[in-house]
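Write out the bound-state structure for magnesium ion.
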Amino acid sequence: MSEQLWFEPDTEPNPVIRVDGLNFFYGEGDSRNQVLFDIGCVVQPGQLVVMTGPSGSGKTTLLTLVGALRSLHEGSIHVLGHDLSRLDPTGLVRMRRDIGFIFQMHNLFDSLTAYENVKMAMQLNGGHSAAAMRERGTAMLERLGLGHRIDYKPRSLSGGQRQRVAIARALANRPRLVLADEPTAALDPDSTRNVVRLFKDMTVEDGTSIVMVTHDHRIIELADRLVHMVDGRIVSDIMLNDALRICEFLKDVEGFKNLTPTELTNVAEHMTKRHYMPGEAVIREGDVGHELFLVSEGEVRVERGGTEVARLGPGEFFGESALLSGERRNATVLASGPLETYVLGEDQFKAALEASASFRDQLRRVYFMRH
Ligand code: ADP
Ligand code: MG
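---
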């Protein structure tokens, strides 16, 4: 039954992970101890899933089962389209190559340099020229702030640097799935920020799915989903709405920068997502305006009297002037290509103004700068 569902074509993307009725035990006979109880979970492409839970709740065990690093007892696990219980050893090895593993025991080769450790992972995957491997491996190490340590061996690196080499090694092949167990535990705040950014970019740009155990709030802020485990059970599994993503945008936007996190969240929670087709008008000059728009993806063209006056991209907003002045729309805004926006209605916009003097002042300032 579940096999059939798995291979059925569907408008939904095929899940990257599907776990059903999973039970797991350590030990044998009298010392047999159940540590996972009836786990069920589906992870879609591009999802950044954060797992939290007290020590001993089964997070690492679950990750190692999904990564086929230990074998299954009861239930089923499908990963990247494969039923793990049906893969032979060769199939398992091949499947694991599509997964980037970042575990605490990073097992770098002491005799190889940072770059050589990363290269080795790429060589195992095959199909890359020496030049391509050099370029990609170096780029990955640089992105993780190790540009000056490329030719160092692990023993000349700090714990945090070794951890970053392990991360570069896991990601260099652009795996479709990343399984990471507290990947930033040994890292300083700057490196953590780099790693977090890299993870998020991979989910957005390449559609990589990431399942990660962490208690780091910087990662939790970017997560699409929070799975919480207690005593071997998933006790909550929350899809985060777009509010956090909107906050990410808003806090970089001139008018919203000084809002407190609570004020930002209040605004974000009242915004809704709206798509436009290429060329479609979002607002028209002369219309009565009731909404504020934030560009989420794509670009818009702002025209006055038929002349282009500006282009706005992700994180930029428009439509505030009619709301602030009560006058009609002073510009037409057209979707340049496919466009995704977050929209804030007039009532919520006014409520936000009332709630925050700083918000009001900031918006007014931007408004007057534009006019
Ligand atoms: P977490 O990662 O959430 O801290 P773990 O998956 O490491 O939890 O552990 C879950 C439970 O399984 C704990 O009670 C732990 O003591 C036990 N456990 C973990 N690894 C082993 C092992 N290799 N042999 C026996 N018991 C283990
Ligand atoms: Mg653990």
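---
Residues 282 and 333 are 6 Å apart (CA to CA).
The radius of gyration is 24 Å.
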